[in-house]
Amino acid sequence: MFQLTRSFVEKSQKRYINYKKLPPPILQPKVAETGIFYNNEWHKAKSGKTIKVYSPTTGEAIAEVEAAGKEDVDAAVISASKAFEYQSYWRTLNASERGNLLHKLASLIEKDAVLLASLETLNNGIPYVYAMSSLLKLTIRTLRYFAGWADKYHAKTIPMDGNFFCYTRHEPVGLAPAVALGNTIVLKPSRVTPLTALHVAELTKKAGFPPGVVNVTVGGADVGETLCKHPKVDKISFTGSTRVGKFIQTYAIDSNFKRITLELGGKNPIIIFADFNLKNSVDGCHEALFFNQGQACTAGSRAYVESKIYDEFVEKSVEKAKKRVVGDPFDLKTEHGPQINQSNMDRILGLIDKGIKDGSVLKTGGKRIGTKGFFIEPTVFADVQDHHTLANAEIFGPLQQILKFDKIDDVLKRANNTQYGLGAGIYTHDMEKIHYLMQGLRVGSVWVNGYGVIGPQGPFGGYKDSGWGRELGEYCLQQYTEVKNVVIKIKKKSS
Questions:
Q1: Four-point Cα dihedral 418, 419, 421, 426, nearest 10
Q2: Half-sphere exposure of 31 (CA within 13 A, CB side)
Q3: Which helix (H) or strand (E) holds 363?
């Protein structure tokens, strides 16, 4: 449910100092909602099938949720379509009242923050301190931000030649995430981590959202494909892999030319110059990569370090990785939890072996921790070359790769030599270098002297294979409306 973002960077250590101020987690949070949610009611799957949900910390099943099939998806889409009908209650609701509903939902999430963070830690493995201090806070801030936009996204009047009055309207697309603009939604969370999404579905009902405005179906690739091909769905917003994003693009075009927003993979470079404080750059790059065990599309996985400080940077990065606290994600001192599941852990361990065979030098880590759960040691590779597998694959795991550079022109070319273009970082005080790199980097976000800062006000998205469109900020709103041009013939212009 909660997208993984990092606003820690230089502030991360301060947050850990203040961890005692966080409310304690619920060690065994109750999983209350496990059904399919549409028309403001909970339903069993029509097929009778269920999906087991596991804890990555123990590898044990923690819940069974209803597995949606085609009939369930149809029912959810019909529910959303009915709520979106012309002259429906939702379509005629004042924009300010839509904003109030989002504020109410934000307040309910705030009230249940400990439970939601505990569910996310249980189901996702993210350390509770991160779930509480980052994910929940960003979720609440984002809801309140877009609540404020509900009655402020205005159209325009256009001075047209002749005796005509011309204006535009921003109309909701149809089934889409931007509830603030009057859309209705069918949400499909990951079948691996659905628990917080199901809880929030119940909160939308408590907040007073009309039936059919918010609907949730849990399932695998078949459910996603059904939604993407459904003729009554007008917009798809997807966060996930580039491979799946390409399927969605095809489905959208082959069905009814759905509008799509895709936030996909990344292989994000961070360029570190010798003039910047070494400790701060090491700390920033460490958190940029190891946040949520590297399971973030924005992970700073390629650290390009100026040659004159390379050896010292590697040495201090290794020291930092060795000190990272790995353990039970419910423990407030834990910084590093498990990978999401067995298959991802095995894939990452395979990439570690491939990196060693390619000639990358393993400096620390590289092994599984224990036999219970899916823990991998914080891992650092040095002497990584651009043609090595580790420098090209989106690893989505706790593997830091440190590369060396001498010239700024060269490192810019190397940083851009990837199919991805999500984000990049720069550490230097030299404004000429900052502007040169900022303009040359083919990415959607450039973070200077502090990596991965994401807030609801700024647009987020990528170039190239990292996706289409933008999430967050005013630019996001453009993704969820259709612009209608209206021209009225009048007798005579008055102005």
A1: -10
A2: 23
A3: strand 361-364
Topology, domain 9-264+468-484: Aldehyde Dehydrogenase; Chain A, domain 1 (3.40.605)
What crossing angle do the helices spanning 195-207 and 113-124 adopt, rounded to 10°?
160
In the structure encoding, which two tokens stand for residue 247, read together?
A: 């399927």
Percent of the chain's residues with pLDDT above 70: 95
Residue 61 in this model has a pLDDT that exceeds 70? yes
Helix (H/G/I), strand (E/B), else coil: 381: strand
Q: Which amino acid, one-letter code, is at 335?
A: E
Is 335 an active-site residue?
no
For residue 60, give every residue at least 6 positions away whose Cβ sits within 8 Å of its Cβ, in sequence order, or none.
54
Specify the DSSP class assigned to residue 2. P
What count of residues does the chain have? Answer: 495
Three-class SS of residue 325?
coil
Reported as type and span, the H/E element at residue 79 is helix 70-83
Query: From the candidates 263, 287, 335, 394, which is the catalytic residue?
Result: 263
- CATH number for the 269-455 domain, one of 3.90.550.10, 3.40.50.2000, 3.30.1330.40, 3.40.309.10? 3.40.309.10
Q: Which residues pair with 427 in a beta bridge?
A: 272
Is residue 387 exposed (0-12), middle (13-18) or buried (19+ Cβ within 10 Å)?
exposed
How far apart CA 269 and CA 286 sit, in angstroms, is 13
Cβ neighbors of 166 (< 8 A, separation 6 or more) are 157, 158, 159, 160, 485, 486, 487, 488
| Residue-range domain boundaries for the chain | 9-264+468-484, 269-455
Query: Tokens 């190239």 — which residue?
Result: 464
Name the average pLDDT for the chain: 93
Going by pLDDT thresholds of 50, 70 and 90, the confidence category of residue 185 is very high
| Cβ 454 vs Cβ 7: under 8 Å | yes
Let me know: does 6 contact 291? Beta carbons within 8 Å: yes
Whole-number CA gyration radius for the chain: 24
Report phi then psi at 297, rounded to 5: -65, -25
pTM: 0.92
Position 191: which residue type?
R
Nearest of 456, 435, 436, 454 to residue 445 by alpha carbon:
454
Q: Is the Cβ–Cβ distance between 33 and 44 less than 8 Å?
A: no
Query: ∠131-314-374 over CA atoms, to 5°?
Result: 40
Mind giving me the DSSP string for 418-475?
Answer: SSEESEEEEE-S-HHHHHHHHHH--SSEEEESSTT---TTS-B--EETTEES-BSHHH
How many CB atoms neighbour CB 241 within 10 A?
A: 14
Give residue 18's pLDDT. 59
